[in-house]
Amino acid sequence: MELVSVIMPTYNSALTLKEALDSIIHQSYRPIEIITIDDASNDNSLAIAKSYAQQQSTKDVQFVTLSNDVNAGAGISRNKGVEKASGTYIAFLDADDIWKPEKLTTQINAMKSQNATVCYGAYEIFKTSPDQPISVHKVFEKLTYDKLHKTNYLGNLTGIY
After folding, report:
1. pTM: predicted TM-score of the whole model, two decimal places
2. CB-based burial of residue 9 (10 Å sphere; 0-12 exposed, 13-18 middle, 19+ buried)?
3. What are the distances in angstroms from CA 5 to CA 102, 134, 158?
4. Closest-CA residue to 18 (of 44, 40, 4)
5. Domain total for the chain?
6. Which of 40, 68, 109, 129 is buried most, with the most CB atoms less than 10 Å from its CB?
7. Within a domain: residue 108?
8. How far apart, in whole angstroms, are the C-alpha atoms of residue 62 and residue 111?
9. Which domain holds residue 69?
């Protein structure tokens, strides 16, 4: 199976980072490369990311931990992660989001069966428990350039290319 690089910018994410990282580690898909980019946090986000890299790395789950000297924003941090990525596929997850365990397997299988280069999906928003979503963002059956030109319909945490 091809390597998936998961790009995760972090900024003062200590309260949510462990759960986000766990949701990547518990993916059914392997192999995975997790690239965290700490954006000059004031909390212990970087220490948490480094701890996970030391304790959770296996041959199927590899970690790369990067950090910015100054706060540059999520976009620049994501681009830094993409530059370091070695995967065939690139996926994105912010440090305050989580994935369901079959997310990568489902999307990569769909991409292969449709010969697609990009894939995105629906997602749920919840306050305290993923078992109790407060809203669901559904997807278009077909998303055109014209629709994307007007607004971004892709939930960042669902995108993979």
Report:
1. 0.89
2. buried
3. 16, 30, 14
4. 44
5. 1
6. 68
7. yes
8. 23
9. 4-118+154-158
